[in-house]
# Entry
Amino acid sequence: MTPRQALVSTLHLFVVLAFFVAGFFFVSFSYLPQVKEKIFEKSTLIGLGLFVTSLVLLLGFYALDRGRYLVIKMGVRTRVNVIRQTVEECMVTHFPKQMYLSDVEVDRKSRIEIRVSLAPISEQDRKALFVEVEKQLGSLLRDRFGYTKPFRLVVKI
# Structure
């Protein structure tokens, strides 16, 4: 629920409650002996009318938002083979002959561990390569699988 929807729902609640309180006020007039002599007997009708209005508003506001949201929480885990294939395609495309995928694992807490073998390169090139790998794999996992947690990259040199 967005903040705007929460604000609108709160406003709807206050409008319905205001009509309900006004209806209760007018209905209770007819039961107070001191007021009964001074106020019209029609206060009960006004109160019942406000009760009906509050009920109609409540049902109307409920009908406006009913069925608009669908939230499905599923326990389905992304298959490791799909992640492995996607990461392998990324490695071949972006890091040919620099890095080779060995294995991909997903543990019980849904953390991804990617194991790679690294071709012999200099220390300076290695650091730049790791920064680029983190950027490419992070965006790939986020875009394709909605994975926003940190992933582990295990490098065999």
Q: What stands out?
A: The longest strand covers residues 99-106. Strands lie at 99-106, 112-118, 152-156. The chain has a mean pLDDT of 80.
